[in-house]
């Protein structure tokens, strides 16, 4: 009896979740990185609340961007190193479906964790509590988009020995529109303005990336696995 | 086990790796109930050949056909017909042997734990089903990997050095399994240094540099 | 067959000889058009009523900025052709395009900031077009270093092609997002080079330089492509004939 596409997606997601719970450090390390990077800014600039509130959107988003990059690096590499990636590719399901499942699992772990930690760091940057929901919504869209971009980058660099610098070099320029919309949505939320505009743009970007990135990432993976 | 007259044919395949012309116009075919034993020195392109047959490497020239159609036309459908064991055992170190099989085989067909345990028993791996793969020796991993091949229930087996790291009892067990697979109408392409040559019905393909 | 030209263009010896024969013509034509445009633009075109003589850098800046985008698009197209039809020469074209395009981008950035000095009093004012140009530069860096990063050159070629295609899809998004970002943070700045009604004496030299830059791009592409083909086909027998026949 063959396994349906939906069944395969479910199995891959379950596999990723179990692997991650066996090795929680790989989930926690990017979050620690996010916390530490966010802490650097008040120390470097000023602990003054008004200053912190002004820089909070940039700090939160740059932190999210960098820690997502850190998390995404092992997305295909771990499986490529022990040979399980080949088995996934040869499982009789389309590579695009496999990439979609792996990226969703990755976002469910690292993206959602980051979204949940963000209010804590926002509070530390004296962001008013009323804006937390909007910040979390914008980060949820942003981290999903970043997971897709990261999947492309991770697929392109999977065969490289020192891929992490290369990954940043590839993904960060592509993520700049995301940073612009995300930081702007956060900024408006903090100042009590309507964040609908940038949030819609963020949503559109997320949708667009989710549509095209799986194909790019699977094409990249096919090349680097050859 | 399906006993249709499955057939793999490789036709004039050329592969370059950088400046190296690894496979030079290679042609052969493997029918149902046939075993192809691939030998050759290091660097002769044995692993490359297996990866071409898997569809992981697209040859620069030539084609790989499965049941009369090019494997590139529907790669996923073709790949559900093969069970591939690469040089490394392809086990997740943090999962137990059984969990590894459940995810790997579960992607291909609906399979019960009992079935998986049965195939592990046949490769002599049932004793460490619940050990994490990191705790297994190379030979034990090899047995688990063969249990995966067995559980996939695929007509075409592609095995890269299935006897490496195995003790002599293990070699016996695995060659008996390959024998049985072929006798029941399956096909197999096996890259190996020893163990198969004595068998009747095995064709040998020698790759040279 | 009408497809023969397509197959011919996929054959390295043909491309090598083609590049060798048209390259010099492109250099000559480029020298003529750029020469006319620069002389006419720098000495004969009237000075701008607002910006004075400073505007004259437009004759280098605008064509360079235009070419930086065209070269990126050419690179992505060549990569796409190479990936889809498995025509290897496409990768050679893409590899030859990247440094030329990056150089045009650098030229656009330098001339842009030189222009900024008298206009804004600073070399870098996060002008949206220059910011997009800077991000384009990063995209070029990514593609170029990815190509170099792999031990197997074929793999480097193909990953670089995928990245170039992903980048070309992103270029418009980057452009508009940066514009949107700029409208958010800065009020109306001097709209740069926004001159829909440019008199002919200003416009013709500009168009001439633009055409010249395209020809120059083609000419340098021919030279670089020959080098790429020679390097990639160093094992082939036709190379010796091609080199001895000249």
Can you walk through the features of this model?
The complex is a heterotrimer of chains A (226), B (209) and C (246). By secondary structure, chain A is mainly α. Chain A has one domain (5-225). Chain A has ten helices and no strands. The mean pLDDT of chain A is 92. Chain B has 209 residues and is an alpha/beta fold. Chain B has two domains: 1-81 and 154-209, Rossmann fold, CATH 3.40.50.300; 91-153, no CATH class. In chain B, the strands form two sheets. Chain B has a five-stranded parallel β-sheet, sandwiched between helices. In chain B, helix 3 (97-106) packs parallel to helix 5 (138-152) and helix 4 (113-122) crosses helix 5. The termini of chain B are far apart. Chain C is an all-alpha fold and 246 residues long. Chain C has one domain (18-187, 205-244): Up-down Bundle (Four Helix Bundle (Hemerythrin (Met), subunit A)). Chain C contains eight helices and no strands. Chain A binds chain B through residues 1-3, 8, 11-12, 14-15, 18-19, 22-23, 82-84, 86-94, 225-226, and chain B through 51, 54-58, 76-77, 79-82, 84, 86-95, 99, 103-104, 106-110, 148.
Summarize the structure.
With 209 residues, chain B is an alpha/beta fold. Chain B is 31% helix and 27% strand. Chain B has helices at residues 46-54, 75-79, 97-106, 113-122, 138-152, 168-183, and strands at 7-17, 20-31, 35-40, 61-66, 69-70, 82-85, 156-160, 187-191, 202-207.
Number of helices of chain A: 10
State the major sheet of chain A: none
Q: How does the helix and strand content of chain A classify structurally?
A: mainly alpha
Helix content of chain C: over 70%
Distinctive features:
heterotrimer; A: 226 residues; mainly alpha; 10 helices; 84% helix; C: 246 residues; Four Helix Bundle (Hemerythrin (Met), subunit A); 8 helices; globular
Write the layout of secondary structure elements.
The complex is a heterotrimer of chains A (226), B (209) and C (246).
Chain A lengths: L4 H18 L2 H20 L4 H24 L1 H9 L1 H6 L5 H30 L7 H25 L6 H12 L1 H15 L5 H30 L1
Chain B lengths: L6 E11 L2 E12 L3 E6 L5 H9 L6 E6 L2 E2 L4 H5 L2 E4 L11 H10 L6 H10 L15 H15 L3 E5 L7 H16 L3 E5 L10 E6 L2
Helix pairs in contact in B: 3-5, 4-5
Chain C lengths: L3 H6 L2 H33 L13 H27 L3 H33 L7 H22 L3 H33 L14 H33 L5 H7 L2
